[in-house]
Every structure is written in C-alpha cells, then in structure tokens.
Amino acid sequence: MSYRLGLTGSIGMGKSTTAQFFAAQGIPVWDADATVHALYAKGGQATEILAKLCPEVIEDEAVSRPLLRAKIAVDPAFLDLVQAKIHPLVAASRIAFLAQTVAPIVLLDIPLLFETGSDSLCDGIAVVSVPAEIQRKRVLARGQMTEPELELILSRQLPDAEKRARATWVIDTTTLDSAAHAVKQILQDIRQRQTHA
Hints:
By secondary structure, the chain is α/β, with parallel strands linked by helices. It folds into 2 domains: about 1-30 and about 105-195, Rossmann fold; about 35-100, no CATH class. Helices cover about 55% and strands about 15% of the residues.
C-alpha cells in the first residue's frame, strides 16, 4: 500500500512548482487541476455537462475558464452547481490513479484538499505557504485575474493559517531552494517512518 501524501495550499502559494519537485524525485503525482483541465477540454466529460447547463461558458467546444469565472462572479451559487457535477468525475480519476499506481509514495496534488474532505484519503499532508503579500503579488502578476476575482477565490478557500495548523509538514515556497529542500526532507521523513513501521 502506497503512502498517500496530500499536497495543498491556497492560490499563488507555489503548489504546482512544489509538485514538480516531488515528481523530479520520482514520486508519481495525481494532479487535480490537470484532471479538471482535461475534463474542460474539447471532448471532455465536463464540457458536455456544462454545455447543457450553461452554454455561454463554452468557447471553441471547450469550457472557457475566463467565461466560467465571469459567470461565477455574477452568480456565486453557480460554482456550487458546477462543483457538484465535476467533483464526482475528478474523484473517479483519482480512484483510477490510486488503483493503477504501484509505488512506495504517491502525491495527491489537490488545491481544495481540506475543503472537499479529501484530507481523509491521505496518510500525511504537506501545505505550501508564503506570506500573504507575496501570494497576492504572484497571483496578480500572472495577469489572468483581477483583485475582486482573487478575493472571491480566497473567500472560498480555507485560510492559510488554518491549513498550516492542520498540516503534517509546511513547505515555505518563498524561494525555489527552500521548497526543493523541504521536499527532500519530507520524503526522507516518510521513508524513515516506512522503515520503522
């Protein structure tokens, strides 16, 4: 049975980069965001569902994230409806990954790990974190989101302090070096626990 390490953190905290560090150490990664992207792509299962639910968020036969964000900004309750349809598809992908992957440690990269109750699937949880001002700067520097859109997302995510309080490990991603070092340290900790189990 693999050790299931959950990786989470609020938007702009460096989770995707940290997941890449785990992958570089040979750890199989299941990526919730990548799964959603595939579901939203042309021919994806979620695209078919959302085309029936709300055709105005479809562009070039795929779900347009900017149009979806705009719809949610006007009608926040729509997000709950979308999540109710999409989460079972995402869960099915994760179940298939866990069934097919044979490795001592696997990483479940899930942005809404605590919010969706997925922490119950994990043997340990790593939370990525940086100070709030760095987080805000990173997100707005991408140029894909306005401040009100960022505020809406943050209001629906568990506060960083609460995530850190519930973590087995906290990864400081202020620099790439600090994140990479923390990843190696966590893997060493897990392997030591497995040896002594």
